[in-house]
Amino acid sequence: MKTRTVQTVCFSPTRTTKRLVAAVAAGLGAASVKDWDLTLRGAQAPVFSGEAGEIAVIGVPVYAGRVPAVAVQRLRTIQGRGALAVLVVTYGNRHYDDALIELADLSRELGFVPVAGGAFVAEHSFSTPELPVAQGRPDASDSDKATAFGRQTAAKILALASATDGVELEVPGNRPYKEGWNKPPLKPLLDERLCTACGECAAVCPVGAISINGVATTDDTLCIVCAACIRACPSQGRSFMGTPIAELNQKLNTHFSTRREPELFF
Ligand SMILES: Cc1cc2nc3c(=O)[nH]c(=O)nc-3n(C[C@H](O)[C@H](O)[C@H](O)COP(=O)(O)O)c2cc1C
Ligand code: SF4
Ligand code: SF4
User: Fold this and answer.
1) Is the pTM of this model over 0.90?
2) CA of 204 to the centre of ligand 1 (A)
């Protein structure tokens, strides 16, 4: 079967998943690629027509070894209608645990036929210049591997007579999945002296946890600690310094600094 159209779908607060999904899509070599980013509230989701040759590249980050609950919620608005799905999870060099198997199960539930899956390393959302974790990932080597993964997947698809013809994807992970993280009230802290109330942080927050009232105010019950606002703040006013996330990052920096490589499954 020929790859005709590709639609990419991602949830990607700090943009690393988005970059890897684009690299995979480039490798698929389709004539038409359409990108759908479900990171922000109210984002439009793709529609699949059910015609042969439609491919989805679905990418999410790993949060506590699982697919982030908010990403699951947004993906559930999509109907796969038999389209083939290429699955991408990105993780911060600790492990992806049950996230890839969970994404494979979810994609089947949505009506996709998962055909390939990859777990890619990306800079950890909690990483800082002082205590880096997978800093600079995905790098050129990761992007090349993601594109090669797309090419290999296109070759697998070409060999298929139909979308359901012998496609059985097995990926690592356990069922039942490990318990997700029941996040306590937590949020980035703000140095109010640096805040200019520019609103950049609120604009990138996937869950609408930030309001601007003279300074940025964050609802710690809504916050998913994704770090998007920290990276977006032009005055470097926001950080996890002084929160339990900083302690966690210290541990990640100590124990998970050995470089891991992408893992690919067909
Ligand atoms: C709340 C939270 C939990 C995370 N849990 C894990 C994890 O279990 N294992 C891991 O290796 N990385 C973990 N990470 C790191 C992210 O998976 C990684 O940084 C990812 O690339 C972020 O994707 P994005 O740039 O698309 O937002 C976590 C990040 C956050 C914010
Ligand atoms: S407030 Fe929380 S959820 Fe919103 S962007 Fe910042 S870290 Fe992410
Ligand atoms: S991005 Fe930074 S400076 Fe702008 S409103 Fe948010 S915290 Fe304040």
Assistant:
1) yes
2) 17
